[in-house]
Amino acid sequence: LQRQLSGMMLSAGNGVPSFTPRVVLELASDTKEEAITWLLSRIRDTQYNGGTELLVEQLGPGADAQEKENPNMFLVGATWQRLLSGAEDLGLFKEFNDGSMRAFTCANKYNFKDFKGDGDSFLSTAECQYIIKHELDTLRAKDETHVPGLSRVKLYPGKSVIRRLLSKGILIQVFPLHEKEELKRLSFAWYKKVKLSFQPLEDIRHYYGEGQALYFGFLEYFTFALVPMALIGVPYYLFDWEDYDKYVIFASFNLVWCTVILELWKRCSSSLAYRWGTLSRKKAFEEPRPGFHGVLGFNPVTGRQEPLYPNAKRQLRVYLVSLPFVLLCLYLSLYVMMIYFLMEGWALSVHDAEPTFWTGILCFIPSVLYAVVIEIMNLIYRYAAEFLTEWENHRLESSYQNHLVLKVLVFNFFNCFASLFYIAFVMQDMVLLRQSLATLLITSQILNQLMEAFLPYWLQRRRNKKMVRKIHKGKTLEDQELPLANQVRLEADMSTYLGTFDDYLELFLLFGYVSLFSCVYPLAAVLVVLNNITEVYSDAFKMCRVFKRPFSDPAANIGVWQLAFEAMSVIAVVTNCSLIGMSPQVKAYFPDSDMQLILWTVAIEHGLLAFKFILTFLIPDVPKHIQINLSRLEFESREALKKKCVSSALVSTLNAE
Amino acid sequence: LQRQLSGMMLSAGNGVPSFTPRVVLELASDTKEEAITWLLSRIRDTQYNGGTELLVEQLGPGADAQEKENPNMFLVGATWQRLLSGAEDLGLFKEFNDGSMRAFTCANKYNFKDFKGDGDSFLSTAECQYIIKHELDTLRAKDETHVPGLSRVKLYPGKSVIRRLLSKGILIQVFPLHEKEELKRLSFAWYKKVKLSFQPLEDIRHYYGEGQALYFGFLEYFTFALVPMALIGVPYYLFDWEDYDKYVIFASFNLVWCTVILELWKRCSSSLAYRWGTLSRKKAFEEPRPGFHGVLGFNPVTGRQEPLYPNAKRQLRVYLVSLPFVLLCLYLSLYVMMIYFLMEGWALSVHDAEPTFWTGILCFIPSVLYAVVIEIMNLIYRYAAEFLTEWENHRLESSYQNHLVLKVLVFNFFNCFASLFYIAFVMQDMVLLRQSLATLLITSQILNQLMEAFLPYWLQRRRNKKMVRKIHKGKTLEDQELPLANQVRLEADMSTYLGTFDDYLELFLLFGYVSLFSCVYPLAAVLVVLNNITEVYSDAFKMCRVFKRPFSDPAANIGVWQLAFEAMSVIAVVTNCSLIGMSPQVKAYFPDSDMQLILWTVAIEHGLLAFKFILTFLIPDVPKHIQINLSRLEFESREALKKKCVSSALVSTLNAE
């Protein structure tokens, strides 16, 4: 009762609420009062009545209120008891007294490590926000047929209210708030120190959740894994620059390297996920995505009413429209590549016939044009892929993401590597290959970091300054405390972080350059290592300063990207074997017969592929000690169950007799 | 109490016990009385006191008792309540009222389909026997340091008594009893009907358990899958016998066929396993195998005392002894093969130089010698493999089995196919390949069925007749009822069924002949279909008449064999592509360049392999409707848990306020 009252209390002057605000709901500024009242009462209602039992308050006007400010911003928080029961609902894993990870239960709370009294520092802010988001997402319509006051926003029993409001544009955004102090500490540990150090993965996980922490963990792992490669590459560069023959050894090293690092990453990733309690956490049943539409029916699993869309229809869309479209795009990309090579050949011939300054410039034009066209194609394709995947109408966000990743991945792979493959295997021109590789690596590196972090930062900074100047004239952003209302509005205006997709894609392409062709250009690994180091800083910077705080995502692994990297490493085996087979050094062993050479190359390649699969099979994905821990937990829970069984059987036997 | 008494009651004359006997324990005839008394009392003791609460009685002497008869045979049974609580312990899945499969619980028993009153026909005899075996296996030593009366049989707290007695040879065997009536019904449905029909899988599962039923299911599936292949093969045989060119189409068909049938089998197998309730049943924690030895320590998972053996030591044995040994054997096998080809070449040259009757016979000698040597090598290798795997000292039976299967599989594959590969790719002699294939298929088929079913049957029949003659002179085995004691002793003398290993191995090799080379000899599929049909009958016959009834094995799939068949289908892609590349028809397309031909072949092969993996990935292993059922069950159990959580949270909140 006390809590109910405090939730309903008016906020104490200057927009400061009576609880710790965690999440912000921004409703459209023209939303009817009736709808808002209904929504707030539903959020505040007890769980027994189908509410979420969360605390929610309207955000007061900023220090320098303007006409155009949206008044419909709401702060959401929760009591400690509510958060703990939410953690139990979600099945969050926390460290137990004995050091193992167990699903948190309220009944057992005192046996968890770090649980002192009622909470502080037990749940991280990211976890609190994730719990609140989950509770908001599972706020379901009861018998309302539409949102009161908004007859166009239809509801049916069991429909998630927040998702419907989002898909209808009533709810503009839901985002978690930054925590100024924590952020300052994190950013200091992360990118403000000058000396190189390990990533503060625990802090990142604490502040941004497991998904982000795994990305930075992978980035760090990948960089360290590249170091031996880079170290071997440097002497190659310094001493044997023109001696292509030597790359046989380098290519062989490459083969082993890319298999082993991916296998070890799996183990590494599962260690991290175990430590963070996401390894054995069962995923909650996914709700349909907000954009999913279909005929209302009953979900065969949950029995709840929800839109259904026939799977066959989706499959038809995927295989009859999306697949041909992707293939067409690949063909187009190939076509553009051929035009580029024709143009380049023509420009070279013009230059050779009559070498002047202008023909020298002409030689560069095809490359520049090609680079520009590729970027444009990537951009257009990305929009098309998003449109198509949306149109395929996937029920789950995860399936939507997988289909999108696959589409974008294949096209980007093709666009980036098709010309290199053409140069390597059709033109067989290793000098040109080396040049193209170097150009691609260096330009993409510079462009990426500029586009990704510094441009958005600069834009954001301009916006911030404008706002700060309005409030406190003359002071800088760093050394002052903005009132909460202004801080919230500032964050609401920041760009939304769209997930780790683009970051992983970039790593994937870099991994491709190194694993496929670095034997031709041994400096590639060095460049990628340098790139990764700056990437860490720019990514950390953009997470802390440019984007809204994202909701944490309790990932147990890097998901579909593990598969993508493994596919790339299989392609790397084939490519490296072919490069070895084509090297003059190897050719010298088979002076009289090309056929013998090819047969041997193919045989060795098959052997290596088989070896790779056996290796994947032999190296366990989860380290032994974690496996033991997991089975112990399972064993204990089963023994407990069995004891319960035996005692209940005894009771029933006694009753029967 | 009543049950306790009935368990202790003396058996009512002529060895007929007062309960349904299910399992027989045979102890060594010289076992001390003290040990027997102790064992029986431990078995009869209540679960609360660490016993098994099973019923056990000594088997009386046979109708025609002899001196040399072993008196120490014990019949084990259980009351219905005990069996039901055992089924709950084991987590057996049974059909629920709503048609779904759920883990059986005593509390909920009336909601299960087919549960009438207290049991009859609810648990199959195979299930009852499996439950009793499980309970016997988990009878653990308390604080005994050795078996009373047998100081050499050491015990420690938590050690499985039955396993220790087995490994010390005190317990000679534990086997389940046949059920005469049921067996008669089953064998009629299975192999006594003349008309062809589907396998009575449900009945097989009911009588022999899921492992056997899955084997027969797979055998049937494989036979049906071969029918299209056989139908296509016949016209090839009739019309285009000498036209090797045509086999391109056949090989392409082969490629698609072997990928698709294996994928579909996975779905089929999971449907069966779902229907039988083994798909989602969690395996119990495996006990160490009886032969496992090591230094006594504490199991990190269960915390129980048990022998421990360092994994590193085992790995060393596997990689430093077993692996080199297997490679050596493969080399030896290759060496023998080369000698065979040399001898054959020599014999042919002798025959060509001076063709007489004796040189004609000489031509056959190498083949016969080779076949004999191969059989001997297989036999010796099998013993060596068993010895080595035993010596590797695997803790779990499953890991022992996997290592043994792998060893035997690789060697058998090599022995059977090396000569065919040599003929196909080194000698490139398609006529010889066809001949060898036909010879191998037909001889192995005839030999197998003779050795596998009819020879043991004949031996068994002789033994039975001797015994029957002693009791009822003149009557035949079929039309009379043996007294229980004699029946039990008869069964105890039957050979022990050693599991489905050899049956699967045979199918694996047949699958190899068809998928690798049937394009060269299209009749192979027809022969294999015929073989499979007789195989069904001979296997059914040997299960019903030759062997002791085996304990059922609640398998959810065909285990490591699925992997083996898939590996074979990958090899089949490579082989078929090479055969296509070598065909004169394809060679005609590349008249001027062998290199072009090889490159194209390799490219297409890689494409096909990629396609195969994508296909494996795209076809879900579990059919949609079963996935839905499984997720529904999980959803329900989670919702139930959540409700419990919310109510307990409510209670704790109320208490706190």
UniProtKB/TrEMBL annotation, chains A, B:
Top-level taxon in the UniProt lineage: Eukaryota
Pfam families for this protein: Anoctamin (PF04547)
Bilayer topology: Multi-pass membrane protein
Protein name in UniProt: Anoctamin
Anoctamin transmembrane domain location: 204-632
Family to which this protein belongs: Belongs to the anoctamin family.
Source organism per UniProt: Gasterosteus aculeatus aculeatus (three-spined stickleback)
MF terms in GO: chloride channel activity
UniProt keyword Transmembrane, yes or no: yes
Zinc-finger among keywords: no
Main location: membrane
GO cellular component terms attached to this protein's record: plasma membrane
UniProt keyword terms in alphabetical order: Membrane, Transmembrane, Transmembrane helix
